[in-house]
Amino acid sequence: MRERWGTDRVAALAPDRGSIRQAIGATDPTRWQAYGAGDRVVWGVYGTGRSARRVAVDLEGPAFTCTCAAQKKAGKTAGKTPCKHALALLLLWSRQLVPDDPAVPPFAADWLRARDAAASGERPRQRDEAAAAKRAAERHRRVCDGLAELDRWLRDRVRTGLAQTAGDAGVERMAARLVDAQAPGAANLVRRSAGTPASGSGWPARLLAEYARLRLLVRAYHRIEALPPERAATVRSRVGYTVTRDEVLARQGVRDRWVVHAIRDSADGRVETRRVWLRGADTGRWALVLLFAAGGTSLSSHPDAVLLPGTVLDADLHFYPGQPLRALVGVRHGDLGRAGAPEAGDVGAFLDDYAAALAEDPWLVEWPAVLTGVPVSGSGWELHSGDGALPLELSGVDIWPLVATSGGEPVPVAGEWTGSALRPLTCWHGDRAVRLGTEPEPARRWGWW
């Protein structure tokens, strides 16, 4: 029988972190009528009666089939992107809970034969362009309806006053409505606003800014046909349209010597996420690579866990359409190397770069930074850097290694700018990178790019 995959490889197939969370909820063996694994296919039947779902995974693709609604709505990505049932089945298989069984049931065997016939050209399948266009139009209609409701909701919130928003369950109801409308990205942005009324002094202005970005997304999507292609791709990604891993890797890669400047770990239930910030030594371009671990595995077991601050990787990175930072690692052109301290800028130049990025994508949550500065404590911690100072966000950060490394002198500091504060993640003592992160913090619910 075929060697079983690790759970990290299974997690890498998921189109987003929410899919992994849903899949973990479906890994209770008592919910499965039956399952088995042949040399090529893993199959299972989830649920009972009319709600039973027949699931199969072709390990040579991999390719996926399921009788659930998610696969039926997937359109052109059906079979390429796993649903929660397929991910759950693979997680069970990777944990040795699915027994080897060479007797493949008819539904899985028929599906494999159809795939083989299509691949050999015996029964060439013609893409049903009309059906695909119909599905796309139906989703567009649903998204438009959901965003129109969001627009009314925003108007009502402003009209009735922000004082009533604290502790209001209406945020989750609106987010759930957007998920139903197939706009999960917009739902994440709505959920992001839930904690703002409890964020301290000045929260009304911050909440209005978040509402303004939501309204901008509504207006942009209604005009998406008139937008330039790259801007339209950004709007689609923020609304919640996804692309598969294969589609990203099919895009033109950017080869460079990618230097790792910072990493940040977070945890959301049983899913751990690592954000790896890299910058091209030649192009100067920033990139964000995400690593996931689920089902009891550790991030340290991920094949890209070797990407740590101070290392450099000669590789092709493939960037997601409509997202200026997120990328996948493609072909590697050599072994991992070591890098010295990075070239660091000042506050003024960094804020100019951030403003330019924000003009291209007003819904940016975080932006990478490398600055030379000194940590200074007053009413709160700040990083003083040449012509200015930035407040520091210290959740999940240990400030004292930075203070000790600096000793009152400027040092290079890499981190994430949240729009209002800098979260320092790495500093340098000579050419040695010093991580500033503490234990993984709970992951935010509104985004991961």
TrEMBL record:
Pfam families: SWIM. PROSITE patterns: ZF_SWIM (PS50966). Keywords: Metal-binding, Zinc, Zinc-finger. Residues 53-94 form the SWIM-type domain. The keyword Metal-binding applies. InterPro entries: Znf_SWIM. GO terms for molecular function: zinc ion binding. This is SWIM zinc finger. It comes from Pseudonocardia thermophila. The lineage of its organism: Bacteria, Bacillati, Actinomycetota, Actinomycetes, Pseudonocardiales.
